[in-house]
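Q: Give me the 3D complex with zinc ion.
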Amino acid sequence: MTSTMNLNLDLYKAALLKRAAECRNDLEDVRKDVAIENTAEVMEQGIRAADREVAMERMETAYRQLRQVESALSRMERDEYGICLKCEDDIGQKRLDALPWAVLCVACQETAERLRGSGAALRRAA
Ligand SMILES: [Zn+2]
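A: Here is the predicted complex, encoded as structure tokens.
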């Protein structure tokens, strides 16, 4: 099944590759930060533990994003880019413009977030 939309795939591909590079940089940054923290940890255990939690969260976010981006790129290669994973509807150009790595349409994304509970919504609001 191929998207019925007339998407400029080159444009999205460029955006995805750029985002992937940013995520990898971010992961590398956090890894360095954590390495530095570990050596200082002995002296400032309390503060460092909190810092590390933030670093871990950043790493998780970057990692999750990277996986989304890579999945979008591989779907592009299979000619499935722009199709919702769940309902196989078009994701929609406006949504892809904002989130080139989106794999779900707005409706399915909302359902998925509801099922995941209020945690994600709360984090987003913060
Ligand atoms: Zn959908």
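A quick observation: The mean pLDDT is 84.
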